[in-house]
Request: fold
Amino acid sequence: MSRRRALLLSAAVLPLATPALARERRPAAAARPAAPTGTPASTPLGPFDTIARQALIIDAETDAVLLEKHADERMAPSSMLKLMTLYLVFDMLKRGRLQLKQELPISERAWKMQGSKMFVQIGTQVPVEALLRGVIVQSGNDATVALAEGVAGSEAQFVELMAAKARELGMKDSTFRNATGWPDPEQRMSSRDLAKLARRLIIDFPEYYPMFNERSFTWNGITQENRNTMLTRVPGGDGLKTGHTEEAGFGVVASAKRGNRRLIMVVNGLPSMKARGEEGERLLEWGFREFDNITLFKAGEVIEEVPVYLGTRPGVPLVGGRDVIVTVPRNWQETMQAKLRYKAPIPAPVLKGQELGRLEISGRGVPNLSLPLLAGADVEKRGMLGRIPAVIGGFLGS
Reply:
């Protein structure tokens, strides 16, 4: 409530009387790196340089974009594509069509996969839970193919499922040719699609998401560390997936949570592991430092009392239909403007939940929002005798 009052005191709030959101060595932790020389990304605060070819940072709760650079460019996703494979497997687990302890066979094709490996053995049976860790922690292409074949019978059939799920999730710039992210000239994803997918993984599968925060995994006597250095470089870092190919460069889809705030970042096209770690850390720290989430109104909280004409009560409360949370710059009090627009007086009868106006929010660095304001109570129309004084008063006052 105090933040809402601060908003109303600091912003221009205008009620109107007219109608009217296989393994990479972990670099040692270092001091905050200097800003690189690069081309700028767009932010609500103005241009911000980054050496990443593609970059996007969003707030996981409000979906607000804090930074973007070529976010809709169709790029080679490398192993970051494995997040789509993981989404499908988690979905199967949640619906009971797969079990964590269920064992899947390792085919010759899975065993022969090159690149990052879990080192599963041909002809063996491996539990789904172990294969998931082999994908998440070790980025194993062999484990990924084993999961795809176990779920759909073949990797080709699994790719069809990936495409269908991507359409369902609203991922408009993704084309899949395999389940691993292995280089293919026709295989592409955008940073925005990857961020959208990461957000859905976090929201839809809270029971499985902690796997992304596991730091190492041992299989077949071989221990491999998690390639995502954001887990140790960034306080609150807890996921998701790195990637690297010659075409794509070094990239990562990462998330970190501090208090009630969670950011999701996608960067790609970086020149080295070191650059990926340093630039990922710098961008996430910037996002936490420069922005905050503000609860403007709680659902049902009274924002204004509006007069009612010919009603059984003189006014009706205007309320928000849901919690209104916005991502704003730290100096939001200096830049935000809010306007209440409604038609007054409101003619009776008024039904609870009826839309009576809009709350409009704008300002530098603040997402433009237009939110419905609802009647917080029923107001019946007066009977004939009760209406006479009001009608006469209105006539005499005209």
Remarks:
- The CA atoms of residues 179 and 192 lie 19 Å apart.
- The chain has two domains: 2-19+298-396, 39-290.
- The two ends are 39 Å apart (CA to CA).
- The longest helix spans residues 273-290.
